Amino acid sequence: MKTRSQTAPKPLKTVRLPPVKPRPKQPPQPQPQPPPSRKKGQPLVDRRRPKKPPTAFFYFMEDFRKTYKEENPSVKSMQEVGKACGEKWNTMTFEERVKYYDIATEKRAEYEKAVAEFDKKKESGELSEESDYD
């Protein structure tokens, strides 16, 4: 018994189509702007809303970078600075970290006040709800 690959294929029937008439050229239509892209399920974000403050670790990193660069001027890699910073943070005692936690707590309180003001203004209608969403 022969398999399909061993038998000759049947010729295809071809159909002749009528010639296509050329269309007159029209000026291109302006494309509508697509809505801003965002992942499915993400809420719209208002760009005027206050940004969240950094954590205590970032305030520590800011100070640590300055001292580390003074002590090690030959190190140019941010990766090395980041690793050294992380190691130092992990070996610090809670008493040493308190300074940075206090700064972060103050900034967080300021942020929460600013967000409360923003929400109040938005609810009262002082802020227009025009295309400031991302």
Order of helices and strands: HHH
What is the straight-line distance between the termini? 67 Å
CATH top level class name of the domain at 56-124: Mainly Alpha
Strand fraction band? under 5%
Radius of gyration: 32 Å
Description of the molecule:
It is a single chain. With 134 residues, the protein is mainly α. The protein has a domain of 69 residues: DNA Binding (I), subunit A (Orthogonal Bundle). 46% of the residues lie in helices and 0% in strands. The longest helix has 31 residues. The chain is elongated and about 85 Å long.
In brief, what are we looking at here?
With 134 residues, the protein is mainly α. It contains three helices and no strands. 46% of the residues lie in helices and 0% in strands.
Descriptive labels:
DNA-binding; single chain; elongated; DNA Binding (I), subunit A; 134 residues; DNA binding; mainly alpha; nucleus
Sequence-ordered SSE layout with sheet pairings:
Blueprint: H1 56-71, H2 78-91, H3 94-124
Helix pairs in contact: 1-2, 1-3
